[in-house]
């Protein structure tokens, strides 16, 4: 049964549709077909259509009844195409518009007709658009298709009045106006034979006038044809007949500098300089646009957000001057293509140089020293063992353990031994020990010489974890925690916040960083480069930072919502960025910084501290360790020499005493023997 009822419903709907179409005149049916043809050819399938018509439903006249019958058939025909979501808007019956509707993008079809015999189509249309605008549904960057359903006197002038009012009041310029045209001077309602499409090109050399772009013509096969693109590009490569662009910027040293400020007539004329100003001049000159600076001021964040409301109300055309791509700012206007990239970095204390004596004492690790001592003892024992085994054929210099230790020690220090070994076994051990000591000595001398000149630096903080775990104080702009530390919860714990310090002046922050090893600051890389070039340009002492950006910054311009100059400015800005012009202008600015820093040699921002220059003079201080070791060696040598002398003297005395005693005993025995012989002879 269900398929049967569906078929019956379909037949009834077809019959009713055919019946409704019969209620329209031939010209109205042609207009329905013409509008549907425009939608099919020039509107994207799936794009939401916002349909608006006059609010004269309660004026029960025959003319209004005909118009609303026509609107009913028109909407039914559009809906049957099943290509576009259709939303109707008419005040005051519709007042509950949600924010979801306000964020959606629409293509607009606005039907209008004179409400009374003497009413003005343009005036009625403005009332419709004001109602749509009041609900936040009118976007000035969408296609606007205006359909005048009734005959108007002087269609060209009426069209010009419509497009000029849409531009002046709503900043809408991409407009297509369909106007019925009659060839008869009598009853216009039943003599319409064609429909004209009008538009205008306000930024071209043709000027601000209406242009008949096409006609909707009924051919011999009773099909409506539209031959041209009804929504051509309205923004040219170079603007013509366009007033000055109002630009807001302010001095943001050192990126943007106010170089001139004077009064001309009743106006204040400002002149700025900087890479962003160079970009702005180049882009607007390429587009053939002139501009003037607004004399508004930017003092703090609150005042700046108030200035952004000027952008919302189109009192400003462009805002430029170190503005980041940020969600809060983007809620006030449309951002441009990013043309400069920088970011926040954590600047941490630079690592201090390592003491030369400490570094030299750690040339070899404890395991290397243990290996050397073990090898020393092992080789000494092997030599003593081989010499003892080959006692008859080996030199006596290796047959005692002290002599072997002495010979191995001499080889280690690169001096000659008393005698060379004789046997091949002992020569092999001797040669291996010589090679080992040569390699170890070469490596030690190489590192020793290197560390004498440059012993290196201590470890620097290289990660956010190390920074958080340290006991350093943090310096950054007060009140910016939510912006800077979004998604970095480790920096907003009570412990880390207790170490935070308000640091609004980047110069003072960097100065404290240079003088305080327990302080780190979060600053933009741009200001860090400026500080290094201007104040540290002739010094090796650099600002050290964690390599990764803590928070990236994309610098953009801001425009009013739907600004018609945004797309061409983005195009030219993209070309300037890809060609390297931004980098060139930035380099020129840095060269100017260097020149200005050269005239300020007496700058005492570093409190007169002296830092190493880019080169150094090799002095005796770099050989301090060598002289210390030499002195130690001489002291040990003299000590050993003195001990040897004392030992020798002691041994010599002992030898003399023993010799004297021996001779004395021998003399006594000799005398006794002589006396004995003499006694025997006498007997």
TrEMBL record:
<dbReference type="GO" id="GO:0005886">
    <property type="term" value="C:plasma membrane"/>
</dbReference>
<keyword id="KW-1003">Cell membrane</keyword>
<protein>
    <recommendedName>
        <fullName>Ionotropic glutamate receptor C-terminal domain-containing protein</fullName>
    </recommendedName>
</protein>
<keyword id="KW-0325">Glycoprotein</keyword>
<keyword id="KW-0732">Signal</keyword>
<keyword id="KW-0812">Transmembrane</keyword>
<keyword id="KW-0675">Receptor</keyword>
<feature type="signal peptide">
    <location>
        <begin position="1"/>
        <end position="17"/>
    </location>
</feature>
<feature type="transmembrane region" description="Helical">
    <location>
        <begin position="368"/>
        <end position="389"/>
    </location>
</feature>
<dbReference type="InterPro" id="IPR052192">
    <property type="entry name" value="Insect_Ionotropic_Sensory_Rcpt"/>
</dbReference>
<feature type="transmembrane region" description="Helical">
    <location>
        <begin position="623"/>
        <end position="643"/>
    </location>
</feature>
<keyword id="KW-1133">Transmembrane helix</keyword>
<keyword id="KW-0472">Membrane</keyword>
<feature type="transmembrane region" description="Helical">
    <location>
        <begin position="430"/>
        <end position="453"/>
    </location>
</feature>
